[in-house]
Amino acid sequence: xxxxxxxxxxxxxxxxxxxxxxxxxxxxxxxxxxxxxxxxxxxxxxxxxxxxxxxxxxxxxxxxxxxxxxxxxxxxxxxxxxxxxxxxxxxxxxxxxxxxxxxxxxxxxxx
Length: 111
What we know:
Mean pLDDT: 74
Order of helices and strands: EEEHEEE
Helix content: under 10%
Shape: elongated
Radius of gyration: 27 Å
Strand order of the largest sheet: 3-4-5-6
Number of helices: 1
Structural class: mainly beta
């Protein structure tokens, strides 16, 4: 009785520098390839987020008279999420929250 040899092929894909997909075929691979390390260079990149809140009847005169502790009425209901932008791109929706005597925005959904 002849023994049969089993050949295993593993096909992996990787995105090429030109935007195309390259396929790599390896023989005899029994285990999954090691996970490639994730590129973390952008993890610490700082960005400015803007919370867009519409205020009823707000004029330049109101802006000039703002003082610490001034409360403004917005058109958003307390249960409505507010949009968070980076530049002109909507990234998130969130809700206002007070944390350690600072106003914060908690993320509720990703745009």
